[in-house]
Design brief:
heterodimer, A: five-stranded antiparallel beta sheet, 55% strand, B: 115 residues, mainly beta, 0% helix
Amino acid sequence: DQQVKQNSPSLSVQEGRISILNCDYTNSMFDYFLWYKKYPAEGPTFLISISSIKDKNEDGRFTVFLNKSAKHLSLHIVPSQPGDSAVYFCAAVDSNYQLIWGAGTKLIIKP
Amino acid sequence: EAGVAQSPRYKIIEKRQSVAFWCNPISGHATLYWYQQILGQGPKLLIQFQNNGVVDDSQLPKDRFSAERLKGVDSTLKIQPAKLEDSAVYLCASSPGAGAYNEQFFGPGTRLTVL
């Protein structure tokens, strides 16, 4: 039973356009969410996070939106750049203060 | 600041053999995690250490997996005997504080192939 789901295994976006990566979760008790980015042959690196008391958090080109009623969050990257090509993981903090990860979405930025 | 170091980067073994992975976390980080990432899935926590004590090992298959963190710094993860389904990338991460609200810093991982 996947508690954090990223239903799009891959996404292709033109350079300069907006990339939107989606994530759904099933446990309404999750109160903190994080996005990590992973390049091939490297470990994931932290990108941005959001607490459930907020509905938006912004950091430069990256914005995360949280819709608690829909149990849905999304990561927006504007504008998309070639260096953004990577696998993006959504993760939620559970009641044991551990991360529950989605399966990831591979983002490809086309020149 | 040096990142999280892991070795080896790649390992190929036959089923029923044993294997060990090593991790050196970022200096000063009290919390260390081992994750298993199977192809096409997100990382799954195997064990969390706070200094040299175990905080959570609920998902560690203790009949074959073991881990230790000596002197609260380096850590080793061992599999004995290995099964085909253990083929995965094993990620080590560290963070300055306990709890997943703290940013975790990951090493490059060890890719294990069990034949």
